[in-house]
Amino acid sequence: MSDMMKVSSNPHVRSGVTTSNIMMWVVISLLPAAGFGVYNFGIDALIILIISVMTTVLTEFCYEKLMNKKITVGDFSAVVTGLLLGMNLPSTAPWWLPVIGGIFAILVVKMLFGGLGQNFMNPALAGRCFLLISFPALMTNFVTDTYTSPTPLTALKNGGEVVVIDMITGKIPGTIGETSMIAIVIGACILIMLGIIDLKIPGTYIVSFVIFIILFGGHGINGTYISAQLAGGGLMLGAFFMATDYVTCPITTKGKYIYGAFLGILTGIFRVFGASAEGVSYAIIIGNLIVPLIEKYTLPRAFGIKPAQGKEEKKA
Amino acid sequence: MSNENKGALGFTKDTPMERFLNGLIIENPTLVLMIGMCPTLAVTTSAINGLTMGLATTFVLALSNAVISLLRKVIPDTVRIPAFIVVIASFVTLVQLVMQAYVPTMYEALGVYIPLIVVNCIIFGRAEAYASKHDVLPSFFDGIGMGLGFTCAITVIGLFRELIGGGTMFNVQILGEGSVVPGPAGYFFSLYQPVRIFIQQAGAFIVLAVLIAIMNQVKFNLEKKGKDTSKFGVGGCCSDLEIKDPHKVKEELLKKEAEEKAKAEEVKEEAKETVAAAAGSGEEENK
Prior knowledge:
The complex is a heterodimer. Chain A is mainly α.
């Protein structure tokens, strides 16, 4: 009897979708790319990934313990941040690089702004950009035992030749998680099939980027150039896993298209006109910053409410 | 001595000492008032830059405060801003020429930020808010206090940025390769890799934010101990945060409401009276 009298607040029908659920699936779908990175770069890559994940989780745990807050490590979001950060580092990075990056990402970008859901930019990318600005030489050292050539994107920028098929399978130098287009797309397919992400942002991102490099890349409609630009660098990883971060992307449909197009154009500008060959991470964190603005102007009209009228009419 | 005459830290208001401490700590222009951000963020790439900039500003601030205070009865209110600019610009030119002659390397390093002292809002702010309304001596010490407060803050910012971002302290290598520290500590220090972001603009914001946070925490700790800190300023976005006893807040709110009600009733009565009076006068006119 007492059970029947229980009053609870809505929602009364629960879907079973929780933050930790979603985050766990993101981790699982990141594993093909991370696994390929370990296969490609060896044990160094695995160590970097492990240090990175441990740092982010421990930082979040220690901060919440010290501040007497609810421990939210169980929601796997710190694991996602750590994994993404590790996948954005070169395998040659010294052990302390993911430690500094992880602490900055979690402590400064995520926890100081209020934890999950309050961070104003993607913590993993903010950590990467912090490291990229602070230690440019260490962050762009892609020379390992297997690879001595520059990354395909750098070669392309300097007018060299690239083998596109290698770039698609991933047998190229680069950061741990970005090299294999196939592995990333497999992971992305899992997320899309589960309905965790949709193609609105990645789709517009990639299409607008392709249009941009056709117009301004200087090679016109050149299949090799375009596919090398798509498969090289962090574009795929960024488009599917980082631009779609729930916290830092717009929630309105129109806003998602605008956001995607903005990222595509920015990435194009950085890659074609910028000094460095890569520009995905900067494009996405700059995109994160204009998300509040996009949301403000793409707010859908509530049903039955007239569009906002001019001031004079209101007065009348 | 009544409480109203009390200024910073219990000193009598508008005395030189009170003004000096007020600028240095209580209303520190950088960490509490948060004005003059342009040089704070731009020139603090090293401690020596911060120190030089701070001293140059202190010189201009103290003397322009004194002169503006002397001229405060002569300057017409409508043209006070141009008049302030003329006074401040003369002192800035003085500083500029002296620096160019005696410390040319610092002059080169600070570049355009020396002439920009003319439009530094600390100087304008003090001229407008204090010097143009008070006597010469307190105005002069207000300038010294504010200037040294600014100097301390930007020197500390510069010190941290230089140390973290370059491993040096006043151009002496402490951390990183070539550390001058001897012994095993020196070996560990030499392993340090400078975090370059701290000598770039983003680092300035991070260091400034940490300093302001420390400053605010000091105030909150004092308040928790029950000390009167109502004269102690708090900077940044926490400035409207106050630690208050919730019961007291409720009492105050009730009091305010009651006062407002009483006022509204008074206004009503007054309105009635005036209406009655108007009616009376109208009748008289009719007659």
